[in-house]
Amino acid sequence: MSSPTFSRASSNRIETPLTWSNRLTALGDGFFTHLQPSPVAAPCFAACNTALLAELAWPEGIFDESHLQAFAGNATLAGSQPLATVYSGHQFGVWAGQLGDGRALWLGEANSAQGPQEIQLKGAGRTPYSRGGDGRAVLRSSIREYLCSEAMHGLGIPTTRALCLVASPEPVRREQMETAAVVTRVAPSFLRFGHFEHFSAQNDLASLRTLADHAVAHHLSECHERAALWQGNVYAALLDLVQERTARLLAQWQAVGFCHGVMNTDNMSLLGLTIDYGPFQFMDAFDPEHICNHSDHQGRYAYGRQPNVAYWNLYCLGQALAPLIDDRDMTLQVLETYKSLFPRALGDAMRAKLGLTGDLAPEAAREADWVLVEDLMQLMAAESMDFTLFWRQLSQAVLQQSQANSVQPEGWHAVTDMVLDRPRLWAWLERYTERAGHGQFARMGAQMLRHNPKYVLRNHLAETAIRQAQGGDFREIDTLHNLLKSPFDEHPGFEAYAQQPPAWAAQLEISCSS
After folding, report:
1. Residue 11: which H helix or E strand, with range?
2. In what helix (H) or strand (E) does residue 165 lie, and over which residues does it extend?
3. CA–CA gap between residue 37 and residue 16 (Å, rounded)
4. Closest Cα partner for 81 from 141, 123, 25?
């Protein structure tokens, strides 16, 4: 199949120290449309991620004036091949048909110390897949994506990364008039479930196979070894590896109270990365039914439903890959694995939050430990406890208990003062300390402080940075970035960033608008 015709005048090309692989372009024109970005007025760097630059071993010169123009969409990097990819997907559980990169432009695949990395501009203007949109991103949502992708990386959760954020005074209309921005995103691959759904829905099995073979050859080579588990079927192995990565990702989301907000199949990464930061939220008061997306009127993507939605999305991917797997029973068998893998991954993550790791977490105690977790989570929900703050306080309390000769009730006050039903929490703490054993508290507390972050990107923190940036002051973006890239550290002097949100934060509404 051929892609729609869509072209612009070529941008100015600038020299760059980046070297390119651009393996995606070998797929052929049916998978994308070549086009140039749309320029924006008076761009400036709002943030530059020097930490990521160092990790990739890309030279600091990338953040110079000429590259600024390229990351704004006003010029093209020599050797890059800008394009927008086509995909389809299910949105809020309904088949939406053809979608595609409506405002994201793939620049190319650059070599790095971590292997080839795809570079993508988000907000670079209209594409053939913009579906009537302007192809722009606004400063508000771009700041949130820049900060949250790096916050997730700091938490050890797989994610796309943000290399830099460019701001422009160019007006963009959403609910009200805002200003434009462009986020430069980096990932080993931006392939989504929806890319496979697209060609399967078109009954274009040749392109579907080409895409799957590309994914296996360049991004998921483990499939060749895993195929032995599935009678040598590499496409079943592909689905199996994706469901495993997805299960582990969802367990990590749930363990830190992260709500994605719009888990459509076109927002699901084939590599198990967190992708497309829109109406996300790290929960403040714990509520399993919490809905972070103001546009999600039915609560489809509520926090407690995310694991099942991920399975539903994997089922859609399984349907898309079914013609290649060519064995219905095997496809269903692969998908069934998620139902045991996710609970186990979540159990491991929650045990780690309780300091129960290594030889402190024998297999025989797994079921009883999960009961301990569930009872605590029910209490947290009943009390609307601040999710991040409670787990951090519990970690510190356990470490403090290790400094006493016996379990001291006063050492738990920072935790018990967070609830009204103290007898219920005391009863749980007694069970917990009995399970742990006082002699293990030092070891457990140290572990817990490495699994329960002090800092997450709460909505009000992002909003403060946004309001200051809209006034031309980008310093708060850097402050938050520095905290969030090491969220388990104490960061003396910044304790206010770890406290419960102010009252005005309850009025913040985050929707799909960006």
Report:
1. none
2. strand 161-173
3. 17
4. 25
Rounded mean pLDDT, 107-120? 97
Sole residue written with tokens 């078109």:
202
First to last CA, the chain: 31
Residues 318-372: pLDDT tens digits?
A: 999 999 999 999 999 999 999 999 999 999 999 999 999 999 999 999 999 999 9
Q: Report yes or no: 68 and 181 within 8 Å, Cβ to Cβ.
A: no
- Using the structure block, give the residue that is written with the tokens 């008076």: 42
Catalytic residues: 266
Q: What is the DSSP-derived secondary structure letter of residue 260?
A: -
Burial class (CB in 10 A: 0-12, 13-18, 19+), 177: exposed
Q: Find out whether 119 and 192 touch, Cβ atoms under 8 Å.
A: no
The pLDDT of residue 436: 87
Query: How far is it, in rounded angstroms, from Cα 383 to Cα 376?
Result: 11
- For residue 465, CA distances in Å to 136, 468, 476 come to 20, 5, 5
0.85 exceeded by pTM: yes
pLDDT at 80 over 80: yes
In sequence order, which residues have a C-beta less than 8 Å from that of residue 506 and are 6 or more positions away?
Answer: none
Give, as one character, the DSSP assignment of residue 115. S
Buried b (16+ CB within 10 A) or exposed e, 253-263: bbbbbbbbbbb
Q: How many residues does the chain have?
A: 514
Q: How far is CA 274 from the centre of its chain?
A: 2
Q: What is the mean pLDDT of the chain?
A: 94
